[in-house]
Amino acid sequence: MTNAAQSTSPLKPTKLNTPVAVEITHMNKWYGDFHVLRDIDLKVLGGERIVICGPSGSGKSTMIRCINRLEEHQSGSIVVDGVELTNDLKKIDEIRREVGMVFQHFNLFPHLTVLQNCTLALIWVRKMPKRAAEEVALHYLQRVKIPEQANKFPGQLSGGQQQRVAIARALCMNPKIMLFDEPTSALDPEMVKEVLDTMVGLAEDGMTMLVVTHEMGFAREVANRIVFMDEGQIIEANAPEEFFAHPKHERTKLFLSQILR
Amino acid sequence: MTMAEGDLAVTELHFVRERAIEAKPPPASMTGAVGWVRGNLLSTPFNIALTILTVALLLWVIPALVNFLLVDAVWSGVDRDACRELVQHREIGACWPFVWERLPYFVYGSYPIPERWRVDVFFAMLAIGVVWLLWLEAPRRDIGSAYFFVVVPLCSYFLLHGFPVVGLPVVDTVLWGGVLVTIVVASVGIVVSLPLGILLALGRASKMPTVRLVSTTFIEFVRGVPLITVLFMASVMLPLFVPEQFEPDKLLRALIGIALFASAYMAEVVRAGLQAIPKGQYEGAMAVGLKYWQMMRLIVLPQALKITIPNIVNTYIGLFKDTTLVFIVGIFDLLRTIEVSRIDPKWAAPVTSTTGYAVAAMFYLVFCYAMSRYARAMEARLATGNKR
Q: Which residues are CB-contacts of B245 (< 8 A; sequence separation ≥ 6)?
């Protein structure tokens, strides 16, 4: 696991322009009067795999959604691979092309086939010819082990398959960074493993990943660092062994005692 | 053990299925014609009462209708005497010779007789366009839409209005009438209102306050005013502000009025569809890097329009029938030509008006029912395959 980044896989993610993938400094966000994210500082290096956990409402989803500007922050700065997120639409587009995202509820496009879901952005954003786009899409569908479902509609697949399509869709854009927003929370227990396996494979290829999840087994196996959040703040961050064995903060101890039974 | 089993009074705790239960066909009372009648028409006392009532109603209406339209109808004659009970000494139904003689007027209005072939060509071009566009398996539908949205409107304008250079004398729109006017007004309304309605709906949902304000104001203003008022304003008030030589044609003014009016309604229909699209679809589209217009065109609108098809067609049907209101500003649509003909002294008879109105009813019914059936077929077609 340790040298995963040196894997010889032909699917190695594109190199980042800078050694730092994401740098968040003194970032704050409010919903109206409600201070959801408070003075967030987080630096993610290229190839790092960060798992973010915490109770619901702690702001972990909101934080990673700020990284591709699905949510706007009000103060502080977010720099993604050397590009700072501002109101400049060009920069937002540039970052969204480099950052892939997987959602809790998949957010596949139900009116398009699995293949069309994957080729859409290649054709319209990357301006790739249809044939070439389909080749890329099939390649990644193979990668998530469902090439035979290419011509079905998302509604005809199981939850686990849909989530793997969503991962393939994000990978098609050849992202440098992948964001996962509770990718297994909406799945039946029997489907969680196939999605986690896909994500482990991705980690082994050296993808920079930020994962919001409650799957502590996955965190232990894959993460370089675990970030624990509560009430919009980062409470504790540490390597997984230390984080689970010797949590420092009282809130972390309480959280771990609740979820690890 | 967490709980004493005795408390639950479980008779048998242990059960293991040894053989799977095979699927069997349903009982005979559920299948066949008898089963259908029993299940659907006679299932409860209330249902039985409804069935009897419906049958009675049909028995009352249908024979009367058939008698009037066919059995007692007059099929030949040259003037009112053929359709008068006093002269014929029998029960008189529909007066078809009147319709037959007046049919060209119903179709073309006062369009000059030697030029009427131009209207026929227009009808044919429009029909080809409609079929090409609506028949989903038709070849080269891309050319079909170009034909329908570019070629047909341009050709129709020169064909119907005139183009003296190539020998088509100008026919003033005052002379247009009947089905021609109804079809022109309805198709312009239908073709313009959807794109304009979509833009207004997107504007109303926009994050930009000025765009939102303009769209909302337009929609609410137009929806808050009766169509008749819009038509009056277009035909009576507009000339007060515009110098006479720039004054647009009367029919054109009505067309603009109706198209804008329909757009406002369409905008609200589309907005309802937009609101039904989950936020996740927008986020999914943004996350893969689509820009606003791409997201709307490729992801949001296809889904939103699909679920609003019944409402869009409902608006279209309403619009098609509302075209009859143009008669109030002196334009001779189908209903107006019938209205004028029925008081013609040559055909004055007790059944003339009823016959004329029956023709109008059948015309509108055929068109509206066709739209409704097509929409149902589209819904059924789109519902397969991509269920969520």
A: none
Q: Is B288 an 8 Å CB contact of chain A?
A: yes
**Domains of chain B by range and CATH?**
171-386 (1.10.3720.10)
Record: contact A100-B302, CB cut-off 8 A: no
Task: Judge: B291–A93 Cβ closer than 8 Å, yes or no.
Answer: yes
Q: Which of B102, B84, B87 is nearest to B350 (CA)?
A: B84
Residue position matching structure tokens 């949510």: A71
Say how many Å lie between the first and final Cα of chain B, rounded: 43
Residues of B in contact with A99 (CB under 8 A): 287
Pair A68, A99: CB distance under 8 Å: yes
- Nearest Cα residue to A224 out of A45, A102, A65: A45
- Return the number of other C-beta atoms located less than 10 Å from residue A143's C-beta: 20
| Number of neighbours of residue B280 by Cβ within 10 angstroms | 15
Closest CA to B290 of A107, A229, A60: A107
Partners of B291 on chain A (C-beta within 8 Å) are 93
* Contact list, B301 vs chain A (CB under 8 Å): none
Segment (H or E) for A91: helix A89-98
Give the Cα separation of B270 and B204 in Å (integer): 11
The 10s digit of each residue's pLDDT in A92-133 is 999 999 999 999 999 999 999 999 999 999 999 999 999 999
Q: Which residue has the tokens 């029960």?
A: B91
Q: Is B293 on the interface with A (CB under 8 A)?
A: no
Relative to beta strand A20-31, strand A34-45 is antiparallel
**What is the separation of C-alpha A117 from the centre of its chain, rounded to a whole number of angstroms?**
18
Q: Are B97 and B76 in contact (CB under 8 A)?
A: yes
pLDDT, tens only, B220-275 = 999 999 999 988 888 887 777 777 777 778 888 899 899 999 999 999 999 999 99
Distance (Å, rounded) from C-alpha B30 to C-alpha B11?
36
Q: In terms of Cα–Cα distance, which of B240, B250, B244 is closest to B332?
A: B250
Closest by CA position to B329, among listed B221, B250, B216: B250
Beta strands in chain A, from DSSP E residues, in sequence order: 20-31, 34-45, 49-53, 75-80, 83-84, 99-102, 177-181, 208-212, 225-230, 233-238
- Are B388 and A155 in contact by the 8 Å Cβ rule? The answer is yes
Rounded Cα distance between A210 and A212, Å, is 7
Give the tens place of pLDDT for each residue, A157-182: 999 999 999 999 999 999 999 999 99
Q: Which residue of B has its CA nearest to A67?
A: B287
Report the distance separating Cα B129 and Cα A45, nearest Å. Answer: 59
Indicate yes or no: CB of B288 within 8 angstroms of CB of A68. no
* Residue type for position A112: L
Beta strands in A32-137 (DSSP E): 34-45, 49-53, 75-80, 83-84, 99-102
